[in-house]
Amino acid sequence: MQSLWMLLACAMFATMGALIKVAADGTASLPEIVLFRGLPSVLLLFFWARSTRRRLRPASWRFHIWRNVSGILSMWLGFYALSHLALPTAISLNYTAPLFIGGWMLFFGGAQRDPVRVMAVLAGFLGVLGVLRPSIEHDQWVAALLGLGAGALSAVAMMQIRQLGRIGEPEWRTVLIFSMGASLSGLAGIAIDGWHTRTPLTVLALIGLGIAGLVGQLAMTRAFGLGSTLLTAALQYTTIIFAALIGVVFWGDRPAPLAWAGMALIVASGLLSVWRTHVEARILRGNNENKVAGPVPQEADA
């Protein structure tokens, strides 16, 4: 189920990225995109929580504050990259977060540092390089670097989501507080830059990206809150696959053979991590069962 939640999140975030490009190609400004990314989540979750008499106050503000600071900064940088780069390229940069998480776990994760996991992370790096390929123009390096920064900050946010899951914070409250922060930052930007959206298509794209972001955020929060961090991070690579398919269907993008090879490496790294996690879980369950059963009693000598 953790894998299915992450795959749903990947599909929703790829759809959101496509709608961000549609809105940016229209008349929407970056603050408007950020506002609509958070506003549907705030409205739906707030009224749902009130109608079901759920408590809005979190158990701990500390993890929420760090999650919001890193997550909102990542959102602004990532949306800028999506507005100025091709969809597969921007998604690839935004979703380098699994690489940062994987690298952190390998160097500082203790028991999770093993040759199989090293191979999975290296395959992921090679896959991302293949997808990126030399396609960034000289005037796109700022957007590319900001997209990479979005991936690094997203990794920090995901680790905070993991901590929130461990202390029992429900997914809906985590998403609600984050969406409120994003909406407030978008409103602040609109107060400075003004309102630009005029066309109905742009309005529909803004509403659609907000709904897709809500579903994706809930699914991702549940996946990171319940399961292995490295496993969930590896599966998040599939967002690049979804983004490439959307680019082919709606923008007529034709990825080069090297890009397709990179995507295959990305998928392979995720599957390798899934297999490794499954094997380790079976070994851990076996050790726990042996500890519970205790040593086999020896027969006394006659």
Q: What distance lies between the first and last C-alpha atoms, to the nearest angstrom?
A: 55 Å
- Amount of helix: over 70%
Low-confidence stretches: 296-302
* Radius of gyration over all CA atoms, rounded: 21 Å
Give me the count of strands: 0
Average pLDDT rating: 82
Number of helical elements = 12
Order of helices and strands: HHHHHHHHHHHH
Shape: globular
Question: The biggest beta sheet, please?
Answer: none
Strand content: under 5%
Structural class: mainly alpha
Architecture blueprint of SSEs:
Layout lengths: L1 H24 L4 H22 L9 H24 L2 H8 L2 H12 L6 H18 L8 H26 L4 H23 L6 H27 L2 H7 L2 H14 L5 H37 L9
Gist of the model:
The chain has 12 helices and no strands.
3D architecture notes:
By secondary structure, this protein is mainly α. The protein has twelve helices and no strands. It has helices at about 1-25, 30-50, 60-85, 85-95, 95-110, 115-130, 140-165, 170-195, 200-225, 230-235, 240-250, 255-295. The protein is globular, with a radius of gyration of 21 Å. The termini are far apart.
What keyword list fits this structure?
single chain; 302 residues; mainly alpha; 12 helices; 0% strand; globular; disordered C terminus
